[in-house]
Amino acid sequence: MKLFPTFQNVNTLVLILAILLVVPIFISLWNNRKTLEVLRMGTEQAVNLGIDTNKQIKKVLLRIVCITTMLCFISKLLSGSSSRI
């Protein structure tokens, strides 16, 4: 029984699936980079510049949760696919 996964022979289909799952989320964050820069200035400045801060913060937090979930899923999928008992 193997205790540690090996990444010598990773299933390429799983790797392609992982890339297809993660890339759209990062693209959506990249497309919102200007709004994120305004949010970095602070809530008061963002409101003065016309940003709905509550809505944007909820969107960003949802994307971060999606990214974290996908990365955990993909790491388990990649390590689990190469180490079979």
Q: Can you give keywords for this protein?
A:
single chain, 85 residues, mainly alpha, 4 helices
A few lines on this structure:
The chain has 85 residues and is mainly α. The chain is built from four helices and no strands.
Structure description:
With 85 residues, the protein is mostly helical. The chain has four helices and no strands. The protein starts with 11 loop residues before the first helix and ends with a helix. The model has no long low-confidence stretch (mean pLDDT 82).
Uncertain runs? none
Helix content: over 70%
Count of helix runs: 4
Specify the biggest β-sheet: none
Task: Tell me the number of strands.
Answer: 0
Mean pLDDT: 82
Give Rg in angstroms.
18 Å
Query: Structural class, from helix and strand content?
Result: mainly alpha
Overall shape: it is elongated
Distance between the termini: 6 Å
Strand proportion: under 5%
H/E order of the elements? HHHH
Q: What's the layout of helices and strands?
A:
Layout: H1 12-31, H2 33-40, H3 43-48, H4 53-82
Helix pairs in contact: 1-4
